[in-house]
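Quick one:
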Amino acid sequence: MSDQPQQPNQLNIEISEEVSEGNYANLAIITHSHAEFVIDFVNVMPGTPKSKVKSRIILTPTHAKRFMKAMIENVKKFESVNGQIQDIETVEFPLNFGGPAAQA
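Output:
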């Protein structure tokens, strides 16, 4: 343990090795009720008829709005360094998922 006193407003956050590895997701499904927002992160793979939710985050409406603002700010910072992120205007489902597999 450190001999230095912890600052009054400092938050000590720990992350396990398993959680630090993260989960890849290429789809987020957002639903909400009057009391909470639910974000399901999914990894959808071509040629696979079924996908599983890899992670679910549940937020209060206040925290959902703070998260949205933080994402907007971070995307702006990213684009200022790396250039504009190309947006996909429309996504058509099922994106050939479950159809014939691509050939190389």
